[in-house]
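Supplementary Methods. Inverse-folding protocol.

Structures were first reduced to a discrete structure-token string of length 677. This string, shown here, constituted the complete conditioning input.
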């Protein structure tokens, strides 16, 4: 008898098969003496479309909403149905005695496997679980030597099903309701919509912001500059007359040192990367999108085996990993990091409790390098950048703290107080390897030195200057700051008790990149440079959508409850019952709305397919008729104006005309193009 191993992707399956001494035997699987290894292609099975429950749901009609199936049905995804048939035939082989689930070790990986196995007809038969955090040969061998009962992860599967069914109920119902009610191509969901609301609200803050001028009075002394402060410690002067008066009063006067404060400070190294922090840094330093960062990290994990599992929300490792750290360092040292690694290898590694914390590692530990030899010449430029970030952060977290002496000098000029700060570095520690990239709104750390001064000393003021400035609006979101906001939505919640209870964030580390890309693909957000700028369509959606769906409380509470399903504290059925009721409430609010969708970005161009006006975006024109939806890019538009159209363009126009005619005939649309989480 043999064990059937089900991986999530072909690349992973083939690696498992190689380690398990299997050879290709047919299309879509490998086989050896003890194991048969096959794989999914991501999801092979998904929740069925609404029309599977009732033929009337083929039409998008407000009267048919909400759609509330008693029991959710599964269907095989058409595009990958051939691989599903392969898996199903293997599940039904007489010589297969057990299934080993080897999909990604997480909530969605569990869903990929269980749905496939269920629809494949494997019921009430033995199942085990492979749970590993890296794809190295040694990790695979150790994992197969320590397989767990699949039942240990039943609650993880229940949470995954709960998430999928809830997104179906809210996403499909609300999207159809908005689209039908306002006759516009509108997508909404419990993660996408509050994320978009963050971007729209920030843009509104920027537009409404009224800058206020202020002045700072700086005393230029030998070797340092001090700023005048009021009794509350504020250095801004908002009245020009007051600023001029102080300048005239203090000009040409010397200062006396009234206070010298020196404090020893110690700053621990930043923690290792989880996925969100890695995506933030890659965006800040290299302008890489969250999606590209995840793609590169996934390649480093799956193909090259150079890093551990990327879709993690932990920045810690467990105690049992400490003995592996030396070997990991030895391998990265050979890849060009020897100068920074050798000081660590010359003594016994003793990572701090900040980094080693079993209690803060749930499914997976932080993203760190593996012990596999590194061949940088095989990596793309982007993969090298991501690997470099991961390695440097890993080395950094093992270095000692950065130590310095904080110096604060208070001066007095004619009873006006001036303040100067500086620091004296005692030990660079981890800063010799790396530095923290701060958010744009964070205050910069003062790093300037300051001369030795003592209380009572007279200091000559070389010059006294008024520096004019003005208050600035909040910055637009870029992907780095948007990821931060999605990870920590509590700061946008006014209710203190509710804010303290929300820990989940908008989406998960694994899904946030896709949410950002969906907002861009749906023409709600445009990525201009690094900035995320909402479109006119975004403002309209946020104006029209029910209030509940705009705020992070909804999805954060979902994630909190899904987490409780995993731990056994929450029942999935009760969770879905609550989701159904909230969906009913949302649809009722949309139906009763008196608002109308207003297109404010209409161009003078007409759609070449249906003749309706085209909506203008930065790089595209999109038909305003939701049933047409034709897109015209800048290059194609020029070709059409000059009459130079390729045969391919004519064929595309013909296909679109046929498609448009069918849509008019059906008076509705399909699920695939409009449903977003």
């Amino acid at each position: 008898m043999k064990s059937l191993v089900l991986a999530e992707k072909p690349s992973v399956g083939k690696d498992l098969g190689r380690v398990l001494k299997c050879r290709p035997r047919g299309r879509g699987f490998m086989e050896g003496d003890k194991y048969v290894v096959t794989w999914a292609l991501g999801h092979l099975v998904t929740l069925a479309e609404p029309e599977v429950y009732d033929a009337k749901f083929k039409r998008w009609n407000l009267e048919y909403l909400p759609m509330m199936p008693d029991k959710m049905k599964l269907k095989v995804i058409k595009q990958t149905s051939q691989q599903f048939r392969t898996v199903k035939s293997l599940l039904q082989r007489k010589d297969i005695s057990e299934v080993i689930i080897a999909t990604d070790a997480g909530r969605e990986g569990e869903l990929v496997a269980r749905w496939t196995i269920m629809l494949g007809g494997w019921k009430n038969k033995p199942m085990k679980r492979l749970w590993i955090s890296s794809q190295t040969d040694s990790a695979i061998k150790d994992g197969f030597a320590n397989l767990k009962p699949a039942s240990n992860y039943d609650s993880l599967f229940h949470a995954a099903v709960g998430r999928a069914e809830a997104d179906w109920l809210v996403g499909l119902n609300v999207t159809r309701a908005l689209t039908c009610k306002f006759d516009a191509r509108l997508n909404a969901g419990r993660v996408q919509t509050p994320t978009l609301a963050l971007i729209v609200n920030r843009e509104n803050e920027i537009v409404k912001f009224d800058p206020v001028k202020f002045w700072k009075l700086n005393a230029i002394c030998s070797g340092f500059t001090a700023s005048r402060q009021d009794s509350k410690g504020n250095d801004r002067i908002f009245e020009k007359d007051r600023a001029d008066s102080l300048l005239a009063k203090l000009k040409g006067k010397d200062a006396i040192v009234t206070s010298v404060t020196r404090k020893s400070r110690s700053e621990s190294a930043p923690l290792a990367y989880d996925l969100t922090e890695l995506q933030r840094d890659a965006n800040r330093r290299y302008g890489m999108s969250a999606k590209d960062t995840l793609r590169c990290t996934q390649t480093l994990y799956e193909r090259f085996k150079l890093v551990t599992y990327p879709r993690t929300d932990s920045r810690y490792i467990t105690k049992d990993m400490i003995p592996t750290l030396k070997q990991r360092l030895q391998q990265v040292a050979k890849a060009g990091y020897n100068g920074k690694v050798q000081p660590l290898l010359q003594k016994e590694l003793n990572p701090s409790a900040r980094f080693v914390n079993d209690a803060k590692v749930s499914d997976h530990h932080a993203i760190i390098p593996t012990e596999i030899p590194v061949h940088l010449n095989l990596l793309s430029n982007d993969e090298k950048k991501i690997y470099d970030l991961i390695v440097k952060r890993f080395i950094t977290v093992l270095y000692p703290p950065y130590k310095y002496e904080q110096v604060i000098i208070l001066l007095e000029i004619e009873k006006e107080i001036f303040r100067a700060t500086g620091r004296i570095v005692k030990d660079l520690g981890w800063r010799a390897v790396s530095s923290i990239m701060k958010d744009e709104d964070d205050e910069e750390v003062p790093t300037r030195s300051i001369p030795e001064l003592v209380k009572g000393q007279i200091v000559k003021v070389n010059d006294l200057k008024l520096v004019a400035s003005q208050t600035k609006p909040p910055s637009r979101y870029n992907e780095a700051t948007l990821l931060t906001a999605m990870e920590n939505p509590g700061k946008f919640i006014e209710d203190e008790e509710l804010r303290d209870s929300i820990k989940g964030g908008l989406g998960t580390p694994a899904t946030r990149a896709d949410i950002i890309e969906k907002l861009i693909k749906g023409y709600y957000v445009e990525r201009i440079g690094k900035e995320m700028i909402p479109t006119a369509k975004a403002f309209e959606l946020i104006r029209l959508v029910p209030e509940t769906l705009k705020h992070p409380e909804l999805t954060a509470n979902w994630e909190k409850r899904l987490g409780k399903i995993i731990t056994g504290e929450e029942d999935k059925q009760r969770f879905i019952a609550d989701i159904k009721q909230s969906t009913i409430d949302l649809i009722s609010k949309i139906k009763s709305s008196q608002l109308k969708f207003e297109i404010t970005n209409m161009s003078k161009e007409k759609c070449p397919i249906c003749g309706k006006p085209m909506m203008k975006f930065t790089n595209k024109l999109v038909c305003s008729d939701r049933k047409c939806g034709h897109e015209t890019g800048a290059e194609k538009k020029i070709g059409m104006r000059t009459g130079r159209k390729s045969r391919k363009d004519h064929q595309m126009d013909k296909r679109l005309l046929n498609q448009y005619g069918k849509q008019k005939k059906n008076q509705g649309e399909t699920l695939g193009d409009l449903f977003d989480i």
